[in-house]
Amino acid sequence: RDWFYTYNGSMLPGEVYGLWNHYRQKAVSDEVLYIYGFGDGGGGPIEEMLELARAMGGLPDFPEVRPGRVDGFFERLYQRAWEHPQTPTWVGELYLEFHRGTYTSQARTKQNNRRAELLMREAEWLNAWAVALGGASKQGDLDAAWKIILLNQFHDILPGSSVPLVYEESNRQFAEVRRIGEGVRDAAAGFVLEKQASGAGQAGAASGYVVLNSLPWERSETVAIPFTGDQPPSLPGETQVVETLDGAREVLVEASAPSYGYAPLVQSSARGAAFNVQRSLIESDELRLEFDGNAEIARLYDKRHDREVVLPGRTINQLVLYEDRPLNWDAWDIDAFYEEKPTPLHEIAGWEVVEEGPLRAAVLITRRAGRSTIRQKICLWRNSRRIDFVTEVDWQERQRLLRALFPLNINATRATCEIQFGAVERPTHRNTSWDWARFEVCAHRWVDLSEGGYGVALLNDSKYGHSLHNTTLGLSLLKSAIHPDPQADRGMHRFTYSLLPHAGDWREGQVVRRAYELNAPLRAVTTSAGVAGPASFLEVDADNVVVETIKTADDGDGLVVRMYEAHNQRGAVRLTFAREVARAVETDLLEREIAEAEVSGRTVTVQVRPFEIKTLKLRLA
Questions:
Q1: Distance CA 424, CA 164 (A)
Q2: What is the DSSP letter of 234?
Q3: Most buried residue, 301, 337, 423, 572, by CB count within 10 Å?
Q4: What is the Cα–Cα distance from 265 to 209, expressed in whole angstroms?
Q5: What is the pLDDT of residues 14-31, one digit of tens each?
Q6: Are strands 491-503 and 472-479 parallel, antiparallel or unpaired?
Q7: In the Cβ-directed half-sphere of 290, how many Cα atoms lie within 13 Å?
Q8: Residue of 330, 332, 334 whose CA lies nearest to 322
Q9: Is the peptide bond before 427 cis (omega within 30 degrees of 0)?
Q10: Cα within 13 Å of Cα(274), Cβ side
């Protein structure tokens, strides 16, 4: 019969023989892995499959069927591949030419996942700091929340290809993750601040605001502090009251905090030129934005580097609505022909200046998109080169795709895209069928287009589908499939994406850091324990290394620090802790010890290779 094999392996003779018959590299290895059992989320092997495997074990003129372990198979395969120079190899991304819509479908779930991971990251760090100061560990609560997150990363939930009931339950489960994570985070932060104040002799001092920094580098940026009532809180330095798109009020203030640490909110010495804000123009001391009659950005001038960023004759932040009717799988796919039916969104329902400084300037533009409404606040910051597109969409479309396009004045045949714990280059041309197939690609927090000496990055806080075509970067914002969820993505969405012009390539432009900062802004909290500080739990001396995780060890014996090399570079990195380190070892991802690490006082030194993930387990003195 015709051979067919998917994620369900039924152990039928036709499947087993078909897999062996279609296996072409028998000269390299005389065995092939057959994975059996009910997959796609349910069941595994059953007794009938085991009996079939036993029965096929001695069939004449039939491949030998032998049970075994997956790790053993790959160990043997690895050894045989090394012994055969003709082993076929693939270098680079193995792009799946299928299911491109899963990068965008069910945007709320993707946003919930991004925010949950960020929350857990901050909660684990503060919990570890509290434990180091003698507090009780809440890692068990965090583990329970992680299990909920991992359940929702099942392949039909997070990709957006499940039925409505799944997403109703998923929303409730992510609410539980927020409850657990925020509870642990806030309790741990309170304990740390109280212990630090007591140790510094500040217990009983006046209360105030403290700024928390969950990233491994020192930061100075604008903090948004929510408030209710008529009067904002009294804060040191220049402030600015703003209104969010959902009607809440915030006060902006500039602040600084050390790596993985905190600092009291004090008056900032940073200054910048006043904004020039008009309906069709926003200008800071770094950048100048000019809008055309359709409220699209016709000019972006980088004043520091004397560069025109927009491709001549084009505009950036073009919001375009496309017909999106895949031939086969609605929520799963985006087909290439979607590009043939674009509808630029030029119908403007509102356009006004809403913020004029001193810390941020913004215009608010409202557009109609079919039955939907898009409100977008375009912001420039003092002392920042990031342009934010703070977006609210009341999305009521069916089988439509909303995208933002940025045609850039950059000469590059390849773009760089962030993936988990690293980055990958992809072509911006469509020379071959393989290049053409990459009309939609997946990236995490950023993509970047750079030429010699200059580049532009597109950042996001919860989006994954991107296009890279010639000089245009595109971001898929919302999809509206009608199967298997007839109401997928309908309703209100709020998200932010940003444009970052920079000198040099993505490394010199510190794009990795700027994208992290968009996703994990400085956070101001009040404390009644007295304010001591600033204080840092961990400092890192290498710009190319990101410490992604600080947590208590799974076995309860010490702390775990997980980092990765982000720039495709190698060398030594030194991590300096708040206290002396008694012992440090390198481990694998399961926290099993591999080798002793070099320790000197408060500093641990390790060697990192390009894009390497490195895990340390340590005990503080």
A1: 34
A2: P
A3: 423
A4: 6
A5: 999 999 999 988 888 999
A6: unpaired
A7: 9
A8: 334
A9: no
A10: 4
**pLDDT band at residue 270 under the 50/70/90 scheme:** low
CATH number of 537-620: 2.60.40.2220
The rounded distance, in Å, linking the Cα atoms of 124 and 117 is: 10
Q: CB within 8 A of 138, min separation 6: which ones? A: 127, 184, 187, 188
Q: Which residues pair with 226 in a beta bridge?
A: 250
Degrees to nearest 5, angle at CA 147 with 144 and 152: 135
Report the pLDDT value the prediction gives residue 272, as an integer from 0 to 100. 67
Helices (H), 61-163: 70-83, 107-132, 139-151
Task: Report whether 321 contacts 402 (CB < 8 A).
Answer: yes
Domain-by-domain residue ranges, the chain? 13-83, 276-519, 537-620
| Residue with tokens 């101001």, as numbered in its chain | 524
Q: Decide whether 276-519 matches 537-620 in CATH topology.
A: no
- Fold exhibited by the domain 276-519: Beta-galactosidase; Chain A, domain 5 (2.70.98)
Q: What is the pLDDT of residue 204?
A: 46
Q: Which two tokens stand for residue 264?
A: 């009291």
Q: DSSP labels for 263-281?
A: EE--------PPPEEETTE
Long-range contacts of 142-151 (CB under 8 A, 24+ apart): 142/180, 142/181, 142/184, 142/551, 144/180, 145/116, 145/120, 145/176, 145/177, 145/180, 145/181, 146/120, 148/173, 148/174, 148/176, 148/177, 149/113, 149/116, 149/117, 149/120, 149/177
